[in-house]
């Protein structure tokens, strides 16, 4: 049999070759970007480590922040009572100072013992009022009736000053870590990176004028798109895994409790989130070349708008399902006040969203013809 009479290779061979080639191409691309990716991966964990206090630093910084300084308040008490001709005897001053210090230490211990990462306004107000009520109860046995009446008036001022400092719910030591991890990274940085990484899979080929070369390969357009998507998602999963481990590691350096139980849950939910956000970005990238602004609009309307509606319509939001899965961690549920639910429904919803967006993107790519004059300009 002559070479010219040999049968052509099977189509499956080309498909396999295309998959291997695309994966290799993406891997090489990731290596070329490694020089600037590593600093970016380290930036957020460094900010977490820098802004989250260790237990020792937190204790030193938070002491007397809510209630005030007991020594200064005692000096003010003694000075004002002297102005009103109600002097404290040296022994009374020492006893009152001891009462202030002991009750403030007790209140601060209660404050730090609150398990919730965020202390509500009502919790803080209750701590202040209970502390000063105990001070009054103990001071009554130290002062005479005239002294106690004046001391009561002064103590009301201390209570009022402390309550004025309660302007909003206060973060406990661990809350900044969870805000960085969930609010900033998981619900802002991760979706935008996935949208940017997958949204430009076809648009970037148009910019470099290589799409025509790819579409002439013996692979269907839809297959080509899916292979490119899977290759990119693989790279994004590796980068997200590294970033997640670095963030948890930064929390471990700051002695954030219960990270061992959070780590597998966080990485598993992130593993589901990356392909879902990537498929969304891929779909938006087929709709318009301005897919990032469109992604922001989508996030505001669907994820933040519809997702916060307390009805079944919020199931259209990917973030709603991610919250349901993350709520199985006790610290996250307490801080964000999420409602814990099952696992199968949100997992199925995320997988369905991934397949839906990917199918729509493949359909658009299969049917749409791109005009070089329009697409070559960003």
Describe what this molecule looks like in 3D.
Helix 7 packs parallel to helix 10. The protein has two domains: 13-52 and 174-375, no CATH class; 55-171, no CATH class. The model is unreliable at 1-10 (pLDDT under 50). The protein has 378 residues and is an all-alpha fold. The protein has 15 helices and two strands. It has helices at 11-51, 55-62, 70-83, 90-113, 121-139, 145-164, 175-207, 211-215, 221-253, 259-287, 291-305, 318-326, 330-336, 344-367, 372-375, and strands spanning 118-119, 170-171.
Please name the defining characteristics of this protein.
378 residues, mainly alpha, 2 domains, two-stranded antiparallel ribbon, 15 helices, elongated, disordered N terminus
Shape: elongated
Provide the β-strand percentage band: under 5%
**Annotation, overall tally of beta strands:** 2
Provide the residue-averaged pLDDT: 80
Which class of secondary structure composition applies to the elements? mainly alpha
How many individual domains? 2
Following the backbone from N to C, one meets helices and strands in this order, namely: HHHHEHHEHHHHHHHHH
Strand numbers in spatial order across the main sheet: 1-2
